[in-house]
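pasting for the record
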Amino acid sequence: MSDHKCFDVTIEDGVAHIIMNRPEKRNAMIAEFWKELPEIVRDIDDNAKARCIVLSSTGPVFCAGIDIGMFQNDIGGTQDKNHPQYGAGFYQNVKRLQAALSILEECRIPVVAAIQGGCYGGGVDLTTACDMRYGTEDSFITIYEINVGMTADVGTFPRILNHMPEGIVRELAYTGRKMGAAECKARGLYNEVYSDHETMLAAVMDTAKEIASKPPLAVYGCKRAITYSRDHSTADALDNIAVWNMSMLIPVEMMEAMMSSKQKRSGNFQELPVLKKG
C-alpha cells in the first residue's frame, strides 16, 4: 500500500491497522486526511485485504478534530457569505466530509477504534462511525464545535444517539464539556477502558484477530444486519435478515465453522469477494 501523509497502514493476521501519524499536529484532520482515509478503507475492503480494521493514533492526543485551515480554504469555497455560491459550496463540501467517514460504517468489515488522550470534534465524528470503541484511562471525548460557534455536522449526532441517552448528548453538544473514559464506558460509548496506550492496543488487536478468525461472510452479515436494524423498524429488520440469509447462507462455511471449533483449529473460510470496479 502506498505511503500517505496522514496515515501508516499495516496488514497482518487478517487485521489492517490504520494509524494516524501526525502527533506533532495532534492528528488534526487536514485536507489530505479526508481523501486518504476513504481511499485506504476502500482498498482494504474492495480487495478483501483484511477481515477487520483497527483505527488508532499516535502521541498524547487521538485527534484534535478538523484542522482550522480547512475552514479557510476548503469548506465554503469562498469566504464571502453573501456570495451566491457560498451556501452551495459549503453544503457540497460537508457532504464530502460526511461520506469520507461513512465509509467506515458502510464497508463490509468491522472497524475498531482505539482512543488515547483527547478526542475532539471531528475525532468524535470519526469514532462514532466505527463499530466499536476502546479507550485509555486518560482519554476523553468532547463535542467541541460549540466552543468555536459551530454545530457538529460530520456525523456525531445521528450516531452517538445510538449509544447514549438524548439528554446526555444534548448536554455534551450544548456545553462542549469533556466526557472522560470512565463515563464513556458507563454511558455505553466505550466497550472497555485500559490503563495505557500499549495495553489498550494489545487488547484491541486480540479482539480484532478474534473477529478475523470468524467466517468473513457471516461477520459481514452481522455488521450489515446490525446497522440495518438500528435504522429500520423491527419488522423490516426481521425481513431483511431473512432475505440476507436466504441469499448468503453457505452450508459449507457453517460446517467448517463447527468442525474447526470441535477440532480446536483455525477455520479455513472463504474470503469476501473482491469488488469489481466500474
